[in-house]
Amino acid sequence: MPPTHTRAHVSLADAADYAGVCTKTIRRWVQRGVIPAYRIGPRLVRINLDDLDAALTRIPTARVGGDAA
Predict the structure, then answer these.
(1) Cβ–Cβ under 8 Å, residues 38 and 50
(2) Which residues face 47 on adjacent strands?
(3) Looking at residue 6, what is its pLDDT?
(4) Number of domains the chain is built from
(5) 4 domain-assigned
(6) Beta partners for 46?
(7) Sign (positive/negative) of CA torsion 22, 5, 57, 65?
(8) Nearest of 33, 45, 57 to residue 9 by alpha carbon
(9) Tens digits of residue pLDDT in 2-13
(10) Would 68 be classed as within a structural domain?
């Protein structure tokens, strides 16, 4: 049976590169509960990119073709 996950867990540095932020920001997001982190052993921390994508919030934009006030 194939694995159910679609993406790998990555390092803090790789997650930061993916999101376009610094590793300190990734650590802050983990501390605040914005994204979960997974520890492997006493020091190794990993982030799932699906979790990082899920934390994204779409910013509403102006309607296209609506009445211009």
Answers:
(1) no
(2) 10
(3) 59
(4) 1
(5) no
(6) 38
(7) positive
(8) 45
(9) 556 557 899 999
(10) no
3, exposed or middle or buried, with CB in 10 Å at 0-12, 13-18, 19+?
exposed
- Residue span of the structural domain in which 40 resides: 9-54
pTM for the whole structure? 0.74
From CA 23, how far away is CA 61, in angstroms rounded? 29
pLDDT in tens, 17-68: 999 999 999 999 999 999 999 999 999 999 999 999 999 888 888 776 656 5
Tokens of 45: 């921390």
The answer to whether residue 67 is domain-embedded is: no
Q: How far is CA 50 from CA 19, 59, 68, in A?
A: 12, 19, 38
